[in-house]
UniProtKB/TrEMBL annotation:
UniProt cross-references to PANTHER family, sorted A to Z: STEROL DESATURASE
GO cellular component: membrane
Lineage: superkingdom: Bacteria
UniProt-listed InterPro entries: Fatty_acid_hydroxylase, Sterol_Desaturase_Related
UniProt keyword terms in alphabetical order: Membrane, Transmembrane, Transmembrane helix
The protein's name: Sterol desaturase family protein
Fatty acid hydroxylase domain residues: 37-171
GO molecular function terms listed in the Swiss-Prot or TrEMBL record: iron ion binding; oxidoreductase activity
Pfam families with a match to the protein in the record: FA_hydroxylase
Length: 190
């Protein structure tokens, strides 16, 4: 749905009202990766709160339950959503183009990045290298293990890219680090 929302945002109907810029040099070239990073931060914030809302009893039963039929997710579960949830997920692009100056390249990179990270989060298998656990990135980024816990426990670990909102809001699964270490122990034998 994000890719469809990007196509809609780039179409002539709403584009004139957005902050999408056409000339690659309208902003400094460094703005493309910076705006991509900011888009991911906005998306993660949007996703965290939307995801928590979809876990409300009434909404869960009519929307998010479709996604949670995969208790041990696979890449196919990454985009297994109820139509309402897919629409809400794609709507983040509309938010982005109205709040951030973005080039079409940024929007396409955003769609690709969100796709890759969403598939990784639903692998059902951890692929992070051995040294990742000792890096500062481990403290910030989600892993496949992180999201697998969300699918198996049905609550907590609501973030998409980052652990920040879950930590701030006290919704990070307290077993995450132990589970991650256990999985990496099996993989690497240390």
């Amino acid at each position: 749905m994000i890719a469809i929302a990007v196509v809609i945002a780039l179409s002539g109907s709403i584009r004139p009202f957005t902050h999408i810029y056409a000339g690659i040099n309208d902003y400094p070239l460094w703005w493309i990766p910076v705006s991509l990073l900011l888009s991911l931060v906005v998306h993660d914030t949007y996703f965290y709160w939307m995801h928590r809302l979809l876990h409300h009893k009434r909404l869960f039963k009519i929307t998010h339950v479709v996604h949670h039929q995969s208790t041990n997710p696979s890449p196919w579960a990454a985009y297994s959503f109820h139509f309402i949830e897919a629409f809400l997920e794609g709507a983040v692009v509309i938010v982005l183009v109205f709040v951030l100056p973005v080039h079409a390249v940024t929007l396409m990179l955003f769609a690709l990045t969100s796709f890759v990270i969403n598939v990784y989060g639903h692998l059902g298998y951890e692929i992070m290298p051995e040294g990742f656990r000792r890096s500062v990135l481990f403290e910030v980024l989600n892993t496949s293990t992180y999201h697998n816990l969300h699918h198996s426990k049905f609550k907590g670990n609501y973030g998409l890219y980052f652990r920040i909102w879950d930590r701030w809001m006290g919704t990070e699964n307290p077993e995450y680090v132990k589970e991650y270490d256990k999985i990496q122990q099996r993989r690497f034998g240390r």
